[in-house]
Amino acid sequence: MLGARPTEGMELGTALAVLTFGLSLVLVVLVGFDVPRRLHRRTDPTAGTDHLTT
């Protein structure tokens, strides 16, 4: 399991809090560095701008 090893030895509430905070931080970093758009440009360089943001 993804979170089993880093949180072993912790109580359940603490382990859930650590995993929730960690995964939320990963999500914030991905959105902050605009990773979805960068991946889209890398996979389809001929694509135009996103029609939802205009």
Helices and strands: which structural class? mainly alpha
Instruction: Name the helix and strand elements from N-terminus to C-terminus, one letter apiece.
Output: HH
Our Rg estimate from Cα atoms comes to 17 Å
Distance between the termini: 41 Å
Sheet having the most strands? none
Number of strands: 0
- The mean pLDDT is 85
Q: Shape from CA axes?
A: elongated
Number of helices: 2
Portion in helices: 55-70%
Strand content: under 5%
Can you describe what's shown?
The chain is mainly α. 56% of the residues lie in helices and 0% in strands. It has helices at 12-32, 35-43. The longest helix is centred in the middle third of the chain and has 21 residues, at 12-32. It is elongated. The relative contact order is 0.08.
Short overview:
Helices cover 56% and strands 0% of the residues.
Keywords, separated by commas or semicolons:
single chain, 54 residues, mainly alpha, 56% helix
Question: Secondary-structure map with pairings?
Answer:
Blueprint: H1 12-32, H2 35-43
